[in-house]
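ARCHIVE CARD
CATEGORY: sequence design from structure
SOURCE FIELD: tokenized fold
FIELD CONTENT:
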């Protein structure tokens, strides 16, 4: 549309915004303007958390310099009675993640709110053709994927594995690394981890708990890698090697997947 304009939402990402919203970017509203509600968490009809896309108010931009640079951003608000959800802890974890990887840094936090850059894209969970029970049903899905599709998904998984390993090497575990917490952005094309609400620091837990949590963080990604190799064949990359090594712990019937992968070809 002629009235649409690009607005930066992170150091690398921009979105097109309608003219009526561009006005709020240029002239800050008195209060944060909610553009869209992205998620809501409730218990017995009472709100616990709400996640929203907002245009920052003048007060917010004054409080957080990054909000002036990226006035259109993500805001998560926690309510009394919540289970977990510490904005300060989430901010610090996200800040460390940004130092260790290419994830954009957070914007700010208060006692009950957390703010971060908006990442325009799709959760990986919406892109994958896999899912459902039993897990063995994904063997046929993997084998029927066009090569270009399988190769594209594989490259995204390799990016995500690299981020996880960088975080873990730096002493941070994601804590909730489900596939809906992996955002695939269009321009630039990249996959990025989000939502560090449940992140854990290596120096805050016993070694055995750290090992357990970091292994759990990789399981959704490694299962995807196994499904894709049912169509591609065994891959010699770090993702392929790690998923193959952990195959026995990923599924109740790992031999079915091993046979499908080896039959498909490889080395």
């Amino acid at each position: 549309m002629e009235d649409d304009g690009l607005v930066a939402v992170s150091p690398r990402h921009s979105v097109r915004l309608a003219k009526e919203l561009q006005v709020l970017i240029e002239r800050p509203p008195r209060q944060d303007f909610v553009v869209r509600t992205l998620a809501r968490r409730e218990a017995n009809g009472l709100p616990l958390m709400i996640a929203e896309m907002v245009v920052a108010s003048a007060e917010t931009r004054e409080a957080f310099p990054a909000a002036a640079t990226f006035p259109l951003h993500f805001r998560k608000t926690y309510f009394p009675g919540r289970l977990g959800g510490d904005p300060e802890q989430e901010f610090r974890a996200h800040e460390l993640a940004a130092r260790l990887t290419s994830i954009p840094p957070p914007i700010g936090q208060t006692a009950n709110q957390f703010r971060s850059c908006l990442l325009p894209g799709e959760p990986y969970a919406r892109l994958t053709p896999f899912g459902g029970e039993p897990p063995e049903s994904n063997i046929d899905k993997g084998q029927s994927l066009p090569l270009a599709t399988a190769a594209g998904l594989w490259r995204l998984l390799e990016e995500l594995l690299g981020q996880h390993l960088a975080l873990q090497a730096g002493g941070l575990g994601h804590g909730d690394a489900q596939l809906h917490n992996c955002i695939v952005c269009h321009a630039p094309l990249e996959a990025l981890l989000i939502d560090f609400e449940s992140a854990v620091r290596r120096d805050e837990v016993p070694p055995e708990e750290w090992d357990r949590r970091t292994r759990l963080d990789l399981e959704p990604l490694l299962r995807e890698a196994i499904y894709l190799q049912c169509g591609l064949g065994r891959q010699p990359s770090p993702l392929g090697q790690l998923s193959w090594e952990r195959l026995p712990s990923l599924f109740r019937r790992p031999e079915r997947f091993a046979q499908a992968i080896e039959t498909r070809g490889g080395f």
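CARD ANNOTATION: The chain has a mean pLDDT of 94. Residues 53 and 74 are 5 Å apart (CA to CA).
SHELF: design records, drawer C
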